Amino acid sequence: MIVPFTKAHGAKNDFLLTWTAEAPRSSLADVAIAICDRHTGIGADGWMLVQPADGAQHARIRLFNSDGSEPEMSGNGTRCAAALLLQAGHKGADIAIETGAGLKRLKVISREDNRYLFEMNMGTPVIESSGPFQIADVIFDATILNVGNPQCALLVDEFPENWQHLGAAIGRDIRFPNGTNVSFVKRSGPASIDVRFFERGAGETMSSGTGSTGAAVAAIARGLVSTPVTVATPAGALRVEWNNGEANLTGPAEIVARGEFYL
């Protein structure tokens, strides 16, 4: 079986995109696991099906993590889908994409060959709780929130040496029956934070659009920084603006390859 793909990344959070009409009809989770494998597949944090549409949205997307699970959405991944639509001939600077977390609107800020910069409306973050969060014998200052998918933002003075291990443990903690994405958030200036991400279904990622949004909103809500916030990730900076209403995320997307995967 042949699965066509386009590979793209949003700040090194990488995805494989396939038009829905060209995707297998069944066993999608198994396909995602196989194609995302970094040794025997193409390699990516996730696999996305893209369905062009008419009317209120220009496309519908369905995302699978590298472990085959199906999250609500990805901020970086949605920008990659928007880049694919533009390369396929979409006209205009505004793009509307239906995700598992609802309709998301993006605006093209700039384009240079296969590299794009988008501003994306992330919706209205919902802060569920803030306060001490203990895992094993470690107590963090945490903000639990939802930005289209669940987030646990841990405010730290320094990144723990074993932050990946802690992120994995928190992500599967019984307090999150559906799992959660985890971010470790360090203030680096009056309007800037440094963040590390451990994502549900993918593990450590170089960056995260929803994770950056959740981290920035948590830091703003706790009075640590002011909006707009520069979010420094291991892959570069993203920008989040939030004024107790809808959040907007500005970040890149780049198409890097096309090909066929032999399943």
Walkthrough of the structure:
- The chain is of the alpha+beta class and 263 residues long.
- The protein has two domains: 2-121 and 251-262, Diaminopimelate Epimerase, Chain A, domain 1 (Roll), CATH 3.10.310.10; 126-245, Diaminopimelate Epimerase, Chain A, domain 1.
- 17% of the residues lie in helices and 49% in strands.
- It has four helices and 16 strands.
- The chain has helices spanning 28-36, 75-87, 163-171, 209-221, and strands at residues 2-10, 13-19, 46-52, 59-65, 94-99, 102-112, 115-123, 126-135, 138-146, 150-155, 181-189, 192-199, 203-205, 229-233, 236-242, 247-262.
- Strand 11 and strand 12 (192-199) form a beta hairpin.
- The longest helix has 13 residues, at 75-87.
- 45% of the residues are buried.
- The model has no long low-confidence stretch (mean pLDDT 97).
